[in-house]
Amino acid sequence: MAQGHRNEEQTFNEFYTEVKEIEKRDSVLTSKQQIDRLLRPGATYFNLNPFEVLQLDCDAPLEQIKKKYRSLSILVHPDKNPDNLDRAQQAFEIISKAYKTLENETTRKKCLEVYEEAKDRTDMMIAEKKKKLKKEGKFDGVPEDDPAKYKHAIYVMVMKLFADIERRRQQLEVRDMEERKRKREAEIEEEEQRDLQKEWQKNFEESRQNRVNSWHTFQAGSSSASSSSSSSTATAATTVKSKKSKKAKYTSFNPPKIKPETR
Asked: What is the pLDDT of residues 192-248, one digit of tens each?
């Protein structure tokens, strides 16, 4: 049993040494290789983790973070890669963003909280697996009992959590954009309603003045017509009176009486 444990430990140490050798080799990649690493297919997913971008462990001190940033930024800087200018610019921006995230104490703390949550979730997942195996009468352990696989499980969980954070950020951004769009549409509609109201009020004022002018014109015409009618009535009355007077003059004439003849 002890021999088996020693063999497992030796295997792990060999694997860990190999991993460190790979990390050491990657840390001195050429400019082109670093650019390709940062822009490889699926890199957007990995580049959400600033420690991954700068090839650092999450417990790296700030001084080491600064040092690694300087070395990587020089490698991928567009001025150093005139033949690969566009891709170099993209890679440089990715490194700069990662450094700004880790340089700031608040955002670096949030990244470390992601690692802590990843570890807690991984431990919970392992506990659930063991509980299930125990219930089934199996006591062979779980793959994550291997330190290397345990570390890998945490690594995968970290990537997943960063992806979840980014997805939520995008969802909030979309909602925020839709809300801004809705508010802007409401503002535009309100402005249009105000313009329509102003136009209606303007037309109403103009038409009211026209109506007042028309009424005044009508009133003036009515007064003139009334005056003309009164004049005509007076004239007619005078004419009738004159006729009556003439008639009276003629009707008041009495013819002489004829005297009877005497014989």
From this structure: 888 888 888 877 777 777 777 777 777 777 665 555 555 555 555 565 555 555 555
The whole model's pTM is what? 0.59
| Beta carbons within 8 Å of 71's beta carbon, 6+ residues apart | none
Spatial neighbors of 66 by CB under 8 A, at least 6 apart, are 99, 103
C-alpha to C-alpha distance for 97 and 54, rounded to whole angstroms? 10
**SS3 call for 61:** coil
Helices 31-39 and 62-76: crossing angle, nearest 10°?
100
Say if residues 78 and 92 touch (Cβ distance below 8 Å). yes
- For residue 236, the one-letter residue type is A
pLDDT, tens digit, 9 for 90 and up, residues 3-50:
555 565 666 556 555 545 555 555 557 899 999 999 998 888 889 999
| 262 backbone dihedrals φ, ψ, rounded to 5° | -110, 140
Tell me the one-letter amino acid at 262.
Answer: T
Domains of the chain, earliest start first: 16-174 (1.10.287.110)
For residues 76 and 95, is the Cβ–Cβ distance under 8 A?
yes
- Please answer whether residues 51 and 58 qualify as being in contact, where contact means their C-beta atoms are separated by less than 8 angstroms: yes
CB atoms within 10 A of CB 123: 14
**For residue 236, is it left (φ>0), alpha (ψ between -120 and 50) or beta?**
alpha
Q: What is the DSSP string of 41-100?
A: TTHHHHTTSHHHHTT--TT--HHHHHHHHHHHHHHH-GGG-GGGHHHHHHHHHHHHHHHH
